[in-house]
Write a structure and sequence with these properties.
Blueprint: E1 2-12, E2 15-25, E3 28-33, E4 44-48, E5 53-56, E6 58-63, E7 65-66, E8 69-70, H1 75-84, E9 87-93, H2 100-115, E10 122-128, H3 148-158, E11 162-167, H4 174-185, E12 190-193, H5 200-206, E13 211-214, H6 238-244, E14 249-252, H7 263-277, E15 278-280, E16 299-301, E17 307-310, H8 314-325, H9 329-335, H10 338-344, E18 360-365, E19 370-377, E20 380-381
Parallel strand pairs: 1-4, 1-5, 6-9, 9-10, 10-11, 11-12, 12-13, 13-14, 14-15
Antiparallel strand pairs: 1-2, 2-3, 5-18, 7-8, 16-17, 18-19, 19-20
Helix pairs in contact: 2-3, 3-4, 8-9
Length: about 375
C-alpha cells in the first residue's frame, strides 16, 4: 500500500519544513522530499495536504479517559476519542480514588485494552498512585503506605502492561516497593515523582532505580519544605529538585486557563528543562467530551472546587503551550510526540522520518488552534475527521 501525503508543512525537531511530500509504503515512512513526481507513481493514493501541517502522532503518557468514558471502565471509546484528536499512542491511566480491590479491577480492564488489537493506540498502563502524599491532590484521602501484599497484586493484574507509576518517595514503604516492582518487571517500569513533598535526597536516592520523570510538575507538587531553616527563605522542594536534576523529565499540563501551571511557570519549566526534558500530557478524565460537562472547556473540578485532572486533548494542549509560552508550533508538537517517545523507549515513532512507523496527524493550524483533518496509525487512516 502506497500513500503520498502531498504539499504539507512537516513538523520536525528543527521547525516546520514547508511544501514537502511524505511517501508511506506498507505502514512505514519511505521517503520525504520536495519533489512532486513521487505523487504520480502508479498505485499511489494521493492526499492533498496543501496548506496543512503534518506531524507525528501525539503520545500521551498520562490519560485517565475521554469521550465520557474512563479507561478503567470502558476503554475502547475513550481510546477512540483521543485517536480522533491525534493521539496515536497512550498509556491508559488508572484512578486515584480506589481501594486495593478496586485498583486491581481497574488495572485488569486497562490491561485488557493494552492487549486488545482493537485499542490501536493503547500501548500500556500507567498508575497514578495510590502511594502518594496524603495532603496533595484531588483525591488525597485515598493515599496510603505501600504494602507488598497490595502492590504485588497490581503487577499480576496488569499482566506485563504496567509501564509507568507515580510515587511519593517519602511515603512509607515506597523505596522497598520500587525495588520489588523493578525486580518483578525486570526493570520495565518508569517511576515518576508526584503528589509529593519529598526532599531532593529522597528523590535522588530513587533515580538509579528508575525514577526518571515528574508527574504534572508544579501541580500537586507545589508545597515548599516547611519549616525553612531560616525565616523568610525557601528550601528545595520537589519542583526545585526536578528542575535541578538533568535526568528527570517534567510532565506539564497546559490548559487554556493556566490553572494547572501558570503561563510564567510553563515558560520557566521549558527554559530550565529545555526541549528534551519537557513533555506535554493531558491528565484527561472521562468528563472530556462527555455529556453535561460544565465550566472551562479543558478543566475539571471536585465538588469542593479543587482541580481534578483535565478535559484536555493533546491537540489542544499543544496549542495552549504555544499561546502561553510563545514557543513555535513545531517545538510544542515535539513535546507531545518525540520527547515522550524517547522517554518511553519507542525508537519507531515520535517523528516524521524515513523508516519510522507512519503514525501521523494532519491538521489545520490557524495560529491559535489545531483542527485535526486525518490520523494514520501504521499508515492506515483512522478516519479522524471531525469538527
Amino acid at each position: 500500500m502506497r500513500t503520498c501525503i502531498a504539499g504539507a508543512a512537516l513538523v520536525t525537531p528543527n521547525g516546520l519544513l514547508e511544501g514537502h511530500h511524505v511517501l508511506v509504503v506498507d505502514g512505514r515512512i519511505a521517503l520525504i522530499t520536495p519533489r512532486e513526481e513521487i505523487a504520480e507513481e502508479p498505485g499511489t493514493e494521493v492526499v492533498d495536504a496543501t496548506g496543512l501541517v503534518l506531524g507525528p502522532g501525539f503520545i500521551d503518557i498520562h490519560c485517565h479517559g475521554g469521550g465520557g468514558r474512563w479507561f478503567h471502565e470502558d476503554p475502547l471509546p475513550a481510546a477512540r476519542f483521543h485517536l480522533e484528536h491525534g493521539t496515536t499512542s497512550l498509556l491508559a491511566t488508572t484512578i486515584l480514588h480506589a481501594d486495593a480491590r478496586e485498583q486491581v479491577e481497574a488495572l485488569a480492564v486497562a490491561a485488557d485494552a493494552a492487549l486488545d488489537p482493537a485499542a490501536v493506540n493503547v500501548v500500556g498502563v500507567n498508575m497514578e498512585g495510590p502511594f502518594l502524599h496524603p495532603e496533595l491532590g484531588a483525591y488525597r484521602e485515598w493515599s496510603r503506605p505501600a504494602r507488598p501484599q497490595e502492590y504485588m497484586e497490581y503487577v499480576r493484574a496488569s499482566r506485563g502492561t504496567l509501564r509507568w507509576m507515580t510515587i511519593a518517595p517519602e511515603v512509607e514503604g515506597v523505596t522497598r516497593m520500587v525495588d520489588d516492582l523493578q525486580a518483578a518487571t525486570r526493570g520495565a517500569l518508569t517511576f515518576s515523582v508526584g503528589h509529593s513533598k519529598a526532599t531532593r535526597d529522597q528523590i535522588r536516592a530513587l533515580m538509579p532505580r528508575g525514577l526518571r520523570a515528574a508527574t504534572h510538575l508544579m501541580n500537586a507538587t507545589g508545597a515548599a519544605v516547611e519549616p525553612a531553616r531560616f525565616g523568610g527563605t525557601r528550601e528545595v522542594g520537589v519542583d526545585e529538585a526536578v528542575l535541578l536534576e538533568d535526568s528527570i523529565s517534567a510532565e506539564v499540563i497546559a490548559d487554556s486557563e493556566g490553572a494547572h501551571v501558570r503561563p510564567d511557570l510553563l515558560r520557566l519549566i521549558f527554559k530550565v528543562k529545555g526541549p528534551e526534558r519537557t513533555l506535554l500530557v493531558t491528565d484527561c478524565t472521562a468528563e472530556c467530551g462527555g455529556a453535561g460537562h460544565e465550566g472551562p472547556a479543558d478543566l475539571n473540578f471536585t465538588a469542593s472546587g479543587g482541580l481534578a485532572g483535565s478535559s484536555l486533548t493533546m491537540d489542544r494542549a499543544v496549542a495552549n503551550f504555544v499561546r502561553h509560552t510563545g514557543a513555535e508550533l513545531a517545538q510544542a508538537w515535539d513535546l507531545g510526540s518525540r520527547v515522550p517517545a524517547r522517554l518511553m523507549g519507542f525508537a519507531d515513532r515520535g517523528e516524521v522520518a524515513p523508516g519510522l512507523r507512519a503514525d501521523l496527524v494532519l491538521a489545520r493550524w490557524d495560529g491559535l488552534s489545531l483542527k485535526i483533518e486525518d490520523v494514520w496509525i501504521d499508515g492506515v487512516s483512522e478516519g479522524g475527521r471531525h469538527d
